[in-house]
Amino acid sequence: LSAQAVNSAEATAGDAGLLRAQILLDGARFSPGEIDAGAGSNTRGAIAAYQRAHDLESSGELDAATWKSLNAGAPDVLVRYTVTAADAAGPYATLPDDIMEKAGLDALGYASALEMLAEKFHASPKLLQRLNPDAAFDKANVDGVANPRNPGRGT
After folding, report:
1. What span, in angstroms and rounded, lies between the C-alpha atoms of 80 and 98?
2. Closest by alpha carbon to 15, among 32, 33, 45, 35?
3. Strand, helix or coil at 53?
């Protein structure tokens, strides 16, 4: 799974196509849930809602008409992001596994920089690791990491 493949408007099948669709749907404010390049009921629901809102046949499937609409004027969906010193610094905390213990906490923060970045980009930590197998998410770096961008929200 590469940024080049996912950024191509020709990416309409497989993991690259599904990831592209999830990011474009999220950017258009039709949440597919956690962006993970996986098919699921949230993604199908987002596709169907997008189709209804754009006067397309509401099948919940990524057909040619839906791709044409999603891809119209779409920017690159994966862009570079530089992990900053603030990203790496946190604060991060070890969180309890027990839900009742979590309920007693003053705040429910992030356990790691990877978890924070995944939340920031509406993506699963596993997806960010898959896109960036050599990245050190807990260290500031200048090379950057590929991340799902949010085309409709400018982030």
Report:
1. 36
2. 35
3. helix
The gap from C-alpha 51 to its chain's centroid, in whole angstroms, comes to 20
Residues 6+ positions from 115 with CB-CB distance below 8 Å? 92, 125
**108: closest CA among 97, 121, 123, 122?**
97
Residues present in the chain in total: 155
State the residue for tokens 């004027």: 73
Predicted TM-score (pTM) above 0.85: no
Share of the chain above pLDDT 70, in %: 90
The two structure tokens encoding residue 49: 């809602």
Distance separating alpha carbons of residues 134 and 46, to the nearest angstrom: 32
d(CA 148, CA 127): 9
Q: What confidence tens digit (pLDDT) does each residue in 50-100 have?
A: 999 999 999 999 999 999 999 998 888 888 888 888 888 888 888 888 999
